[in-house]
Design brief:
six-stranded mixed β-sheet, 18% strand, seven-stranded mixed β-sheet, single chain
């Protein structure tokens, strides 16, 4: 894949002023509608639809009210903390076409829709799993394997049971080093001290023999002054355009941590200044977005660990992410990719988009990734497996 600097692009995923950011900001305002008025907004179109087609089709309004109740209950159960009204309207729009189907098919599909709402909003966002990856390199011959945990996109709003399990899971994996690829906070909670404290509680509990390292994520989500307050008093080293050596055995591993502007034409020169092309040591790039991967390949990076896309957060079978949130579209939306000699891994992350975005995941479960990195004589070049967490 040839690198592109996107210098001529007007908007960038993850920055203010882009179409997605404007949409979720507008959607957040829908929650200001008074509850009685909003209930009428759900029932009146459904009633008109039923009058025009058949009265039993007006039951779609009842299902929409059920969606609203389910979404409004999420904060009370401390599962997620988003505004419920905009996602409820979106779900109503998705339900209306199925009301055109004959009875009883439309009722069966509306009921199936409720099951999907429960799964996507209540269940899957809490299904934190561990994905295992292996990588072999001749640069690491003669040194012991390195166990490395990578996670990203915490998007903290308030502490949840999933967040509490996260620390237990990471410790159970017994990593030599822990890496976080940015987005500490939800877009809704950037200036919320309660969210800062909840995020700090997680990072303060993390430790590893070779250290815990983090980079900042999207600038609107991770302002430098806020990240500094979150990490104050923890053992986390915040990498801001830095290269450090992880020493375990005779051959060191270089870790490059780069701040993300989401503009490759700005970030690629900073990466080149931090690397020796080609690097003599095995080199890991920790960078929030996958969009620098083609440039990382040109710089001889061995492994790039990124996030940002959430795997799309909502994925369709055989298609993948509806909105991949990458300048390269679906080519870098999630998972493991090989760009020449560079391995890229894009984590699905942990949290959810903020502001008025639906707090939903579908076919994109939150994950922590355990890497086992060693010499070429240690085994196959790469493999992966995934299991749900039972910790």
């Amino acid at each position: 894949m040839r690198p592109h600097d996107f210098r001529d692009r007007r908007s960038f995923p993850g920055l203010e002023g882009g179409p997605f950011e404007l949409l979720v900001t507008w959607a957040e305002r829908i929650d200001r509608i008074p509850d009685p008025v909003f209930a009428l907004l759900l029932l009146i179109p459904a009633s008109l639809f039923g009058w025009a087609v058949a009265w039993d089709r007006a039951l779609v309004g009842v299902y929409a009210l059920g969606d609203w109740i389910l979404l409004a209950a999420l904060p009370r159960r401390r599962i997620s903390f988003g505004p419920p009204k905009a996602p409820t309207l979106l779900l109503l729009l998705l339900r209306l076409p199925f009301a055109l189907l004959p009875f009883p098919a439309h009722l069966a599909l509306q009921s199936a829709g409720t099951v999907l709402v429960i799964y996507g909003f209540w269940i899957e966002p809490q299904q934190l799993g561990v994905t295992r990856q292996r990588l072999r390199s001749s640069k690491l011959d003669g040194r012991p394997s390195l166990r490395m945990v990578h996670f990203g996109d915490l998007h903290m709003e308030r502490s949840t049971e999933r967040d509490r399990r996260l620390v237990s899971i990471i410790h159970s994996l017994q990593p030599d080093v822990i890496l976080f690829s940015g987005d500490f906070l939800s877009y809704s909670c950037v200036q919320d001290p309660e969210a800062w404290a909840a995020a700090r509680q997680i990072f303060a509990a993390l430790s590893a023999p070779l250290g815990v390292f983090a980079v900042s994520g999207s600038p609107p989500v991770d302002p430098e002054d806020v990240v500094a307050q979150i990490l104050e008093g923890t053992h986390v080293r915040w990498l801001r355009d830095e290269r450090v050596s992880l020493r375990r055995g005779p051959a060191p591993i270089d870790l490059v941590g780069l701040g993300c502007t989401h503009k490759p034409y700005l970030d690629a020169p900073r990466l080149a200044a931090l690397t020796v092309c080609p690097p003599e040591n095995f080199t890991i790039l920790l960078y929030h977005s996958p969009d620098l991967a083609p440039h990382a390949a040109e710089c001889g990076i061995d492994l790039q660990l990124s996030g940002h896309t959430h795997g799309g957060q909502v994925r369709l079978p055989f298609f993948g992410a509806i909105y991949p949130s990458s300048l390269y579209g679906k080519r870098l939306e999630v998972g493991r990719r090989q760009l020449g000699a560079t391995t890229l891994y894009v984590t699905r992350g942990l949290g959810l988009e903020g502001k008025g975005a639906p707090r939903v995941r579908f076919l994109s479960r939150p994950e922590v990734t355990l890497w086992e990195i060693g010499g070429s004589e240690s085994g196959p070049a790469g493999s992966s497996s995934q299991r749900p967490s039972r910790d």
